[in-house]
Amino acid sequence: xxxxxxxxxxxxxxxxxxxxxxxxxxxxxxxxxxxxxxxxxxxxxxxxxxxxxxxxxxxxxxxxxxxxxxxxxxxxxxxxxxxxxxxxxxxxxxxxxxxxxxxxxxxxxxxxxxxxxxxxxxxxxxxxxxxxxxxxxxxxxxxxxxxxxxxxxxxxxxxxxxxxxxxxxxxxxxxxxxxxxxxxxxxxxxxxxxxxxxxxxxxxxxxxxxxxxxxxxxxxxxxxxxxxx
Length: 229
Known about the structure:
Elements (H helix, E strand, L loop, with lengths): L9 H6 L7 H49 L4 E4 L3 H14 L10 E3 L4 H10 L7 H7 L5 E6 L5 H13 L2 E7 L3 H6 L4 E5 L4 H22 L10
Parallel strand pairs: 1-2, 1-3, 3-4, 4-5
Helix pairs in contact: 2-8, 3-8, 5-6
């Protein structure tokens, strides 16, 4: 196999400067990476503390209401788009298949069945992809938990409207100022991460729903180790 020993073009160097730096430039790049990493880590720590101060008491109340629903046979349905879709799946997994001594609770992510998602999107419309599933599966006493970094996802909004109509407990996680979810006026609980960065919002939301899981377990009388989250 022939080995090409031609020097990289300026275009290649521009695209991947970290592959072809001189020593001085390498040190500069590494210093900038370290500075950026430290700044982002400090920002997410600050944001999580801010969310804890703003929503700590409300998270406890929400968890107690979720525990009451679960104790009465209620089920959890989660939903979201993109990165929030994977978060919705993680929430459902955390409740249904908890690590350690956690109590398994009935939970389903509405983004997991790709056949249902694509059928509804193709045949009816993407805006109702979650609402139609709730209409078929949901019942009074169940819980609907939706995530949207912008708070403006049309299908999440429609899902909450349907969940409210059914008498489900509605729990929303949003970012920035909450978007359309703040305008609905029908959510039982809405937790807003006060940031315009999608990355920081999703990181803080991860903390929110894991804390919500732990608080729900405690409200149901489950004994968890201090380091669960």
